Amino acid sequence: MNFSHALIASVAALFLCLPASSKSIEGLPDGVFDEWEGAKLGKSDPRGDGPAGGLDLGRLWLGDDGEALYLRLEVGRETILQNPPSGDIGNDLRLYLDLDRKKSTGLPVENLGAELEIRFGLRSVFRYDQAGNPESVAPGAGIVMGFPTHSSDEFEIRIELPESLRPARTGTFKAKRKRIKLVLRDNAEGGDRLPDGGAINYKLAKKAVGDPTPIRFERAETADVRILSMNVEASTPAIRPDVYRRLLEAIRPDIVAFQELTAWNAEQAREFVESVLSPDGEIAWEARQQFDTITVSAFPILGWAPIDGNLVTLIDLPEERDLVLFNMHPPCCDNEDGRDEEFDNLAAAWRDLLQGSFSFSISDGDAAVFAGDYNLVGFRRQLESIRDGVFVDASKGADFAPGRGEGSLRDPPLRHTHRRLAYTWRRASSSFSPGRLDLILFTGDALALERGFVVDTDSMRSKTRRKLGLNRRDSELASDHLGLVVDFSVRNAN
Ligand SMILES: [Ca+2]
Ligand SMILES: [Ca+2]
Ligand SMILES: [Ca+2]
Ligand SMILES: [Ca+2]
């Protein structure tokens, strides 16, 4: 190597250490990666440098919105981000952030002085003071969130920035733009490291992106069909009916899909919803129940059936097409087999309805909506079963197209009305970070989503709350899950 080559090499090496250029991002942490289209790659780790069967970190993109740092990360194999190595396809992935870029402060690790350590699989987050003393932070507090919550080989991660690293609300840093350093490390034996040497330098954006345009609460068109789906955490409507009265009055749904409501039977749920939304009795609401799922509808219910612990109803819309509503609450947590089975049975029920071999019949082109607490904390194959018609258990039958001509069902990313957040479940003291466990999938050939959002009274503007008659703590007092609201217009049948 002659001198000029050496110079080029050292300049190249210098560049490798230089900050990845900052990237303002209007991120929505939800496990859908469309906001990263065209984003500049932060770092690409070599393939094949992880242990056999272990994680193999790949490409990493970085962005921030002045409030939070966003990572999009490839991990080389399917893993459940918040499962420990001892669990199903778990991991011991760790992220170290040196927030002041001083090796002398924080936890001495990976040649950094880390002020923040995230152990994804072990579900723990630690802050370190200057002297390196740890403070454990419950992941449920939401400082760190990773999506999807089901297994994947790619994740979106949102990390709240401390105040000291945020630009002023309206201004920009007068001094130099702040930088941080980070390293990702798979803590397994011989685990992969990203980057292979040194650290990623990241220069934070100068300006805060700011809150998104609020999503209006009212339905876009009076003719739209509004559905509210909500896991009500251990029958809370029976315990705190006032909270649910306020929520229902503000949301004014035509159809409510409750999950985890066992203290009431269908008639009690029906009576409650009708008393709030049709106090004069001008609409005769109807309801059906299967175990803890109850569907209450302002439109007549033409047919219904239980599917394990879930409920399917055929709802008579004032349109040519009617609506098949699956109200879903498959098993939680590490009950993978139970979840596999129920997702498959739900998919099979829809296939049978489409083929005219179910216990009640529908018309060609009727719409379908699959709303509920999906408990998506395990294998992604469960989502693929219902969304894409790929059965987990091949003995359930051949794959089919649940979205008919469109193939798959649509899975719209819904966000909170006033913030770039998409989680639907949170519990501040939990070792699980807030997650998107509740979904509303639908047949896109029969329905158009006109408006959709997640209701979190805590993050709504106080003016909006007042106008709607809601209290700040209503969502918190209502459930560990948030309500999902969708407005559909029914497409004209061809
Ligand atoms: Ca996203
Ligand atoms: Ca790698
Ligand atoms: Ca430090
Ligand atoms: Ca590596």
Question: What this model shows, in words?
Answer:
This protein is an alpha+beta fold and 494 residues long. The protein has 2 domains: 16-203, Immunoglobulin-like; 225-490, Endonuclease/exonuclease/phosphatase (Deoxyribonuclease I, Chain A, 4-Layer Sandwich), CATH 3.60.10. The chain has 8 helices and 25 strands. The strands form 5 sheets. Strands 4, 7, 8, 9, 12, 13 and 14 form a 7-stranded antiparallel sheet that branches. Helix 5 packs parallel to helix 6. The longest helix has 20 residues, at 336-355. The termini are far apart. It binds calcium ion (4 copies). The site of one calcium ion (CA) has 7 residues, from loops.
The proportion of residues forming helix, as a percent range, comes to 10-25%
Provide the CATH topology of the largest domain: Deoxyribonuclease I, Chain A
Tell me about the biggest sheet?
7 strands, antiparallel
Ligands and ions found: calcium ion
Tally of helical runs: 8
Instruction: Give the structural class.
Output: alpha+beta
- Domain count: the total is 2
Mean pLDDT: 93
CATH class designation of the largest domain: Alpha Beta
- The total of beta strands comes to 25
CATH architecture of the largest domain: 4-Layer Sandwich
- Radius of gyration of CA atoms, rounded to a whole number: 24 Å
The end-to-end distance, rounded to whole angstroms, is 71 Å
Low-confidence stretches: 6-19
Shape type:
globular
What do we call the CATH homologous superfamily of the largest domain? Endonuclease/exonuclease/phosphatase
